[in-house]
Specification:
This protein is 41% helix and 19% strand. By secondary structure, the protein is α/β, with parallel strands linked by helices. The strands form four sheets. The protein has a seven-stranded mixed β-sheet with strand order 4-12-11-10-7-5-6, sandwiched between helices. Strands 1-2-3-15 form a four-stranded mixed β-sheet. Strand 16 and strand 17 form a beta hairpin. The model has no long low-confidence stretch (mean pLDDT 96).
Length: 399
């Protein structure tokens, strides 16, 4: 176990040699067990961030670890010029879980967005529709590459990198008339998060998604759902759209599908596959390699074996009830919003201050949308962990 000076040395080393693109918290994490993380001093933290909704199975899951070790001893990478069993197995399982027809593996959620945008434009090109524009949502977040940031609806993310990809119009989330006002005869796709995360934890309203599906069906516009953060069991369905029964034409996923290894995917219906990407249109050197696909395959097996989605449905009412008690108890906590184990508390005080206080109490939470305290814990939390979180958060809010 290292002393505080040891932790300080690692922080100083990171600040000296890494590009300064993150505002990191002053904690040097070392290992995890279940829903807890430990720093290099052995300090214990209850984790309600899960690597920003990534580590849904928590830490050090034995079956998951063994699957990675087994694959690492066999094969890590061969490129997509060859077939591998883990990639085929993962694609089959992800197709079944997602309700889509075809899967393309990427290295990240941002790359999944890029692929979906290209697929939508290729679909329009193949059909010779002359369409190329996208309608995206205000306050959305889809990633930081040039294409992904172009459809991200927060001006501060876009402005430093302009000119961006052209042909993007922004509408108000959950406002169907606003979307209709942005659609033109050049619109090829509408893209949105099924539950907005970075923008402040806003679930979609059923009537909004139903209206979008109707518009897209009538005008042969593709509907793209970004479920990178809200998918994979987090809202109480395997993917959030399944709870609304509004199926997209393209869906992006990442984060929890690999439980920590760098993997994402975009999936499409057979109709989109028929008219969009063909050999040579899109590719990736590392995407879908046997190592990450072994992880995806095992994660999907564990979700089924341990009934993870059912557990989220069971624990959600208890978490929501406890968070509502905080709204009643603290004047600075104005509202709870969210779905499943993707919850936010709207605060009337600096969120960073509460996050810092929580860390001192041994609790890890993060922010969203500037004034929202975001909780996206591992999906394996129990009531006892909710109680512990509430106890620690009360102290953080009272400080």
């Amino acid at each position: 176990m290292e002393n505080n000076q040891g932790n300080k040395n690692y922080i100083e080393k990171a600040e000296q040699f890494l590009v300064h693109t993150y505002n990191r918290y002053p904690i040097v994490l070392d290992h995890g067990e279940g829903v807890y993380l430990y720093d290099r001093n052995g300090e214990k933290y209850l984790d309600f961030a899960a690597g920003i909704a990534v580590c849904s199975l928590g830490y050090s899951h034995e079956g998951y670890k063994n699957a990675l070790k087994e694959q690492a001893e066999k094969l890590l990478h061969v490129s997509n010029l060859f077939y591998t069993a883990p990639t085929a197995d993962a694609a089959e399982k992800l197709k079944k879980a997602s309700g889509m027809d075809r899967v393309f593996f990427t290295n990240s959620g941002t790359e999944a967005i890029e692929g979906a945008l290209k697929a939508a434009r290729k679909y329009a090109y193949t059909k010779q529709s002359g369409r190329f524009e996208f309608v995206a949502m205000n306050h959305s977040f889809h990633g930081r590459s040039m294409g992904a940031v172009s459809v991200t609806g927060t001006e501060s993310y876009r402005t430093p990198f302009e000119p961006l990809v052209s042909g993007v119009r922004f509408a108000r989330y959950n406002d169907l008339e606003s979307v209709k006002a942005q659609i033109t005869d050049k619109t090829c796709a509408i893209i949105l998060e099924t539950l907005q995360g970075e923008g402040g934890i806003y679930p979609a309203e059923p009537i909004f998604l139903e209206g979008l599906r109707k518009i897209c069906d009538e005008q042969d516009i593709l509907l793209i759902f970004d479920e990178i953060q809200c998918g994979m069991g987090r809202t109480g369905s395997m993917f959030a759209w399944q709870d609304y029964e509004v199926k997209p034409d393209l869906m992006c996923m990442a984060k929890a599908i690999g439980n920590g290894v760098p993997v994402g995917a975009f999936a499409m219906t057979e109709k989109v596959a028929e008219y969009s990407l063909k050999p040579g249109d899109h590719g990736t050197t590392y995407g879908g390699n046997p190592f990450v696909c072994a992880a995806v395959s095992k994660v999907l097996d564990i979700f089924e074996e341990e009934k993870i989605v059912e557990h989220v449905k069971e624990i959600t009412p208890y978490l929501e009830g406890k968070l509502e008690e905080l709204v009643e108890e603290f004047e600075t906590v104005k509202e709870r919003r969210g779905k499943g184990l993707m919850q936010g508390l709207v605060l009337e005080r600096p969120v960073g201050e509460v996050i810092s206080n929580a860390q001192k109490e041994g609790l890890l939470v993060i922010s969203a949308g500037g004034n929202v305290l975001r909780m996206v814990p591992p999906l394996i939390i129990e009531k006892e962990h909710v109680d512990e979180m509430i106890e620690k958060l009360k102290k953080a809010l009272a400080a």
